Amino acid sequence: MIHPEPMPAAVRLRGEMADIDVTGLVKRYGDVVAVDGLSFSVQKGEVFGMLGPNGAGKTTTLEIIEGLRTPDAGTVQVLGTDVIAHPGTVKERIGVQLQATALPPFTKVREAVQLFAALYQRSRPVAEVIEEFNLGEKADVYTDKLSGGQMQRLSIALALINDPDLVFLDEPTTGLDPQARLNIWTVIEGIRGRGKTVVLTTHYMEEAERLCNRVAVVERGRIVALDTPRRLIAEHAPGTTVEFANVPGLDVETLRKVPGVERVVADGRVSITTRTPETVLHTLLDPSAPWAPAEVGGGEGAGAIRDLMVRHGTLEDVFLSLTGRSLRE
């Protein structure tokens, strides 16, 4: 499910002050350029996603915006404040959930929330936050006894204890089972429903499509595309993909000449990109099709089709189209 599109980016960026405004951001580690001139804005009340493979520069970018790292060049305004010059001021108004939350040994859930509440000048009632994240039954349980989903709910609760205007969630559902992931999605939708601005990094495309108003695709420290999920898919992955199991002797070159076929990739499976799936499927399932291997179905085309799957374009397709790489590489 793709979340309804927000107002077009060009209108919003000019019509109101952004909660985050990044210009020309650069961060180097020796000869490695981790962030290479990034510029983007995040508007109040939107969920802004950052997608990219491991090592693309997403986490480094977030850590600079959060005031945890100093850039080599560029400017960062967060909630109207220069985060490089005044990181402490910004940290009072943001919430951060890191990829891994490290807590002192033998800390109970209630104690962890109390500890984080004490770090801020302003904080929400501890009991209220515990109940909001369905941790009431675990309040007096040691944090190292929590399940993965419970620990992620706790880490997001800790990020919201100061009632922040802007929340950063760095891969909040990585490693969770589907049920726990859906639970975290509901939590994030609740944060958005209260008018908070959320910056989210994720490797899960369904997650980005469901939650994010806009998405930035990051590759080697640069933003290679930025728009709503729907517009990114329409521009970079507009077709339908028809997939089926590969078989020895399949005539891939003849497949490429089938009317409506735009692209064919054949490895463990055959993947066909098309904007006219009905036409392509009709040809693929034609018993007299000439592309099938002779040993399959006696030369009948339909006999070569096994494990057929048809799907529309996704953000994963967008990234592959832009970079040729997988998001998890």
Structure description:
By secondary structure, the chain is an alpha/beta fold. It has 2 domains: 227 residues, P-loop containing nucleotide triphosphate hydrolases (Rossmann fold); 74 residues, 2-Layer Sandwich (Alpha-Beta Plaits), CATH 3.30.70. The two termini are 25 Å apart. It is globular. Strand 9 and strand 10 form a beta hairpin. The longest helix is centred in the middle third of the chain and has 16 residues. Helix 4 crosses helix 5 and helix 9 crosses helix 12. The protein has a 6-stranded mixed beta sheet, sandwiched between helices. A 4-stranded antiparallel beta sheet has the order 2-1-4-5. A 4-stranded antiparallel beta sheet has the order 12-13-11-14. The chain has 12 helices and 14 strands.
Structure summary:
With 329 residues, the protein is an alpha/beta fold. Helices cover 31% and strands 26% of the residues.
Q: Stretches where pLDDT falls below 50 for ≥5 residues?
A: 1-15, 295-302
Mean pLDDT: 87
Name of the CATH superfamily of the largest domain: P-loop containing nucleotide triphosphate hydrolases
Radius of gyration: 24 Å
Shape from CA axes?
Answer: globular
CATH architecture annotation name of the largest domain = 3-Layer(aba) Sandwich
The biggest beta sheet reads: 6 strands, mixed
* SSE class: alpha/beta
Topology pattern, helix = H, strand = E? HEEEHEEHEHHHEHEHEEHEHEEHEH
CATH topology of the largest domain: Rossmann fold
Number of strands: 14
